[in-house]
Amino acid sequence: MKLGQDQFHASTRDSWIQSDLDEPVHHHTSGGQDRWTAEIWDLCTKDTGPDGWDSHWEHRVSGPGRAGIVPVAMFCTTKPPGSVSPAKRQIREVKETKITINCVTFPLPGEGPEQQLLKPNEWSYCDYFWTDRKDPQGTSVAGFEFLLQKQLKSKQMQKEMAEFFHERIKIEEEYAKNLSKLSQSPLALQEEGTLGEAWTQLKKSLHDEAEVHLKFSNKLHSEVEKPLLTFRGDNFKKDLKKYDHHIADLRKQLASRYAGVEKARKALADRQKDLEVKTQQLEIKLSNKHEEDIKKARRKSTQAGDDLMRCVDLYNQTQSKWFEEMVTTCMELEKLEVERIEWIQTHLRQYTTLRHETDMFNQSVVEPVDQLLQKVDPGKDRELWVKENKTGEVRPVDMDI
C-alpha cells in the first residue's frame, strides 16, 4: 500500500535517497533548540520484563545506512510571528537533517551521531524493515509486509515438507507390499539341503523386512508427517491478518497525522504571507485600519503556528506508537520463525532416527540368513540328496566269456 503524497524535490540529497529507496520524499528542517529528542525504546539492551517493554527511553539518533535506519521525531522550526514583524525578522539558512518518506520521518545520512541497531549482530527483524520498497510492478510495499510474506512462505514450506513425507510413506507402503508378495513366490521352492534351508530363510526375511518397512511408514505418518501438517493450523493465518491490520491501521493513522501537518504548514505559510502583505501596506501608508488588520493577521498567524505545533506533536506521538508496535510485532514474528525452524529440525531428526532404526531391524532380519548361508555345505547337501535319491550301490563289473 502506498502512503503519503508523491512529491519529489530534485536535489543532491534527494538523489541519494531516491536511488537508495526509490521513494518520494518530503523535506523538514531542524534548527535551534530541538523541541523533541529523537528517542527509541531500549528494548533489547535492558531487562524488559514479561511484556518485553522497558519503561525507559534510550537516546539513539540517526546515521547513514538504510538497513538500520529507524524513524525519528519530526521537528517544527517555524516560529509563529506574534510580536516580531516579519519585515524585521532575520532570514537565516537552516540545515535540513530529516526527510519524510511515505509519511515516515527518517534522518538524513551523515547527520548526527550514528544510529545503533536495536539488536546488534543478530540480524533481527526489528532492525531491517523500517523503509518501504517497490515491488516489480512498481507498487510501494511496506517493510512489515515482507515479514508477513516470509511467515506465509514458511507455512507453505512446512506444508510441502509434509507432502514430501506423505510421498515417502506411500513408497514405503508400496515397497512393503511388494516385499510381502515376493516372499510368497514359489520360485526355487524345490531347493534342498542346507542351501534350501538358507533359501527358505531368505524368502521369509523378505516378509519380515516388509513388516519393518510397514512399521516405518506408520511411524513416519504419526511422528513426522502429521506433526508437520498440523503445526500451527488454520488460526495461524488469522493471527497474521490481525498483525497486518494492526500495523496497517497505525500507518493509516500516521498518514492522516502527516496530512494534518502538511495542511497546518500550508495554513501557516498563508497566514505569514498575509501578515507580510499587510505589514508592507502599513509601511507605505499608516492608518488605524491597517494596524487593526495587522493585529488580526498576527493573531491568526500565531494561531496557525500553534496549530502546526499541535499537529507535529500528534504526528510524533502517532509515529512513536507505530514504532513501538513495529518493534514488538517484529520480535514476535521473529520468535515464531525460530519456533518453526526448531520444530521442523526436531521432526527431521526424528525421521533420521526412525531411518536408523529401520536399518537396524533390517540388519536383524538378514542375520539368520547370513548364519544359514555360512552353514551351507555342498558335501552335506550331496549326501542328503544321494541318500534320498540313490538307485543302487553295486557297480558294474566285466563280463565273463
Largest sheet properties? 3 strands, antiparallel
Strand order within the widest beta sheet: 1-4-5
Number of helices: 7
* Percent of residues in helices: 55-70%
String of helices and strands: HEEEEEHEEHHHHH
Q: How far is it from the N-terminal to the C-terminal residue, by CA? A: 122 Å
This entry's quaternary arrangement is single chain
Shape: rod-shaped
Structural class: mainly alpha
Q: Spans of 5+ residues with little confidence (pLDDT < 50)? A: 1-67, 78-94
Q: What's the overall average pLDDT, rounded? A: 80
Rg calc: 41 Å
How much of the sequence lies in strands comes to 5-15%
Number of strands: 7
Please describe what this structure looks like.
It is a single chain. By secondary structure, this protein is mostly helical. The chain contains seven helices and seven strands. It has a three-stranded antiparallel beta sheet with strand order 1-4-5. The chain starts with 11 loop residues before the first helix and ends in a 12-residue tail after the last helix. The relative contact order is 0.12.
SSE inventory with pairings:
Elements: H1 12-21, E1 25-28, E2 39-41, E3 57-59, E4 98-101, E5 104-107, H2 125-128, E6 133-134, E7 140-141, H3 143-183, H4 193-230, H5 235-284, H6 288-374, H7 378-389
Antiparallel strand pairs: 1-4, 2-3, 4-5, 6-7
